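Raw record, unedited: Probable phosphoketolase
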Amino acid sequence: MQDGTMPTPATALGDKELRALDAHWRAANYLAAGQIYLLANPLLRQPLRPEHVKPRLLGHWGTSPGLNLVHTHLNRVIRARGLDTLCIWGPGHGGPAVLANSWLEGTYSETYPDVSRDAAGMERLFRQFSFPGGVPSHVAPETPGSIHEGGELGYSLSHAYGAAFDNPDLLVACVIGDGEAETGPLAASWHSNKFLDPVRDGAVLPILHLNGYKIANPTVLARLPEHELDELLKGYGHHVIHVTGDDPLQVHRAMARAMDTALDHIAAAQRAARVDGITDRPRWPVIVLRTPKGWTGPAEVDGLPVENTWRAHQVPLAEVGENPEHLRQLEAWLRSYRPEELFDDNGHPRPMVLSCVPEGVRRLGATPHANGGLLLRELPLPPLERFAVPVDKPGSTRHEPTRVLGELLENVMEATSERRDFRLVGPDETASNRLQAVYKSSGKAWQATTLPTDEHLDRHGRVMEILSEHTCQGWLEGYLLTGRHGLFSCYEAFVHIVDSMVNQHIKWLRTARRLPWRRPIASLNYLLTSHVWRQDHNGFSHQDPGFIDHILNKSPEAVRVYLPPDTNTLLSVADHVLRSRDYVNVVVAGKQPCFNWLNLEQARFHCARGAGIWEWAGTEDGTREPDVVLACAGDVPTQEVLAAAQLIRRHLPGLALRVVNVVDLARLLPAEEHPHGMTDAEFDALFTRDRPVIFAYHGYPWLIHRLTYRRTGHAHMHVRGYKEIGTTTTPFDMVVRNDLDRYRLVIDVIDRVPGLAVRAATVRQTMEDTRNRHHAWIREHGTDLPEVADWAWSAG
């Protein structure tokens, strides 16, 4: 195998098996077309009439016959070889095919008993498709056997590899549509085979389905000369197996040979690595399947070619209810599958149709790997006391929060070294983000060439680094959806690259929560560091805190955002999110030395509250309401608020000051809008109803206004945050440029507390002078003012 030769293919199909496979395929095609068109008369026991047809024709036919072919032949090899298999259906509009096959194999009726495997159930299957109160036209969470939403073009292959990692007995077939093959995420994910461990991971079998067209245009890969496409796929590290044709029986024979050849090759590669100890990276097989778009559908409509053109993409025959000729063509098309041979008088699939279908959990719609919560185990998290930093009094010591977190993650890696169900992913930033302690328990996954100068590369590693945020996201989603745990560490500014991917995952989680048969999975956890306020050296391109805004626009039941202000609160938050289920958790934390404000017990209580008063930082005496509230969310804003509080203590000692820190940003929302939200009474007690609130926030300030606009005291809320003013400069200059600095915050207090502007005019002037002195200082010295660089908290 290592010399590039292919194993000998299995014996060719016998005539009986060939007829059975063709019957299954025809049945799936009939059911796929029926879902798009039929409202009644599912078995065509009567002549087709307009009232049997849906009033709105929705769905996509073009890719369905090819997907049905793949499903039929996967059934064959799963049954023959006893394989545990998951299939990722990448083409965006493959819903009719996957639903059809799920119904044929029985898993759909087991999941939804009202859609029985008979004539009545077939009618329900047809009626519900793309119909109000029914199911989507894409493969979706409602589809048994799926972990990949059909609208996620470009992510199928990375999802497939994520599912295969640490699943050594699993085959993950991945059908890649030739439209999605043009996307950037898909192009990068071909490199995933350099990270697939043939010993401890499963196998991925990519099936590139080239039917030639997208919605209205030809596809790039389908128009490449075959030798050029072969060179491309060989360059990605694959052996290429072609299946081409439009004659069904010939294609069945070719597809069976291709499947047997590919699976023999996979078995040989795994045997070589697992038994013979060969460490060379295998050249895994890929099948290139070329079949006509809309295969077996109408060849021509209204004098225009349809089959094997872009016109077959969606609904080949439109206006069937109003156009008698189209209705006649539809009936002829459906009857061409000879449904009377495929279904008995009661609508049950005939035995020949089901002869290739596997049994039990081997059925593609029944695999537990597509309902990962069934396989999920609790993550063995260590006691936080082992990693907590001592805090005798606030601000007396400093640590790098993510470095301490790395020690906890190293322990998790060690605790899961045998069961292998935790991975850390990120785009080449594990060490940069101070998480390198994990290398003591697991190196970085790597199957490509290594050099003596390399460090921490490991053929069996579970730290995943590739400079493609899309691929990292896809890997982790596939890993989580198949019942494992993980964490995605990323520079804050560049996590935006996966905005659309996380959208789809959140939608998946929201829908899955409403399906009682879907079991909860581990949350998708982001650690965003190297954040906006400490990218002073990299400059404007690395300064963007907007991912938080993007996340908090999504389904409240599924999203959480945490801004721990110090090391112990980060540990507490990390412990919480790693234990959680069915959420997308965003944790923003710094990697630079940061003051420690709370000991572990205080941190736990504070994180449980989500937002609270830091009595030790304010000057309230409990006899009256505060004159002003200084609020903060984020590590740098917290430091600036505490520095401002110290200045107020010194210069305005008679002012009753309250300091509020927010860890859980959703706490600002009303309770009726988010499960973590505060009631109005809670919010008013914390922030007051009518006193000025100066809020120093990590990100874009308008988000805080959006979260609090319905509160009684919103008119008194003044927010400072990132205003898209960035550059390469000193750390403190970043906050000055965005008016988030301590001196600006003191000025805001003076300007907004009634009657204070006149009494504290000299204090305000001192603050302005210090800001001006700062500008001159950094231009001369290149460092921050000594009183800033050497600042430490003191309540005196």
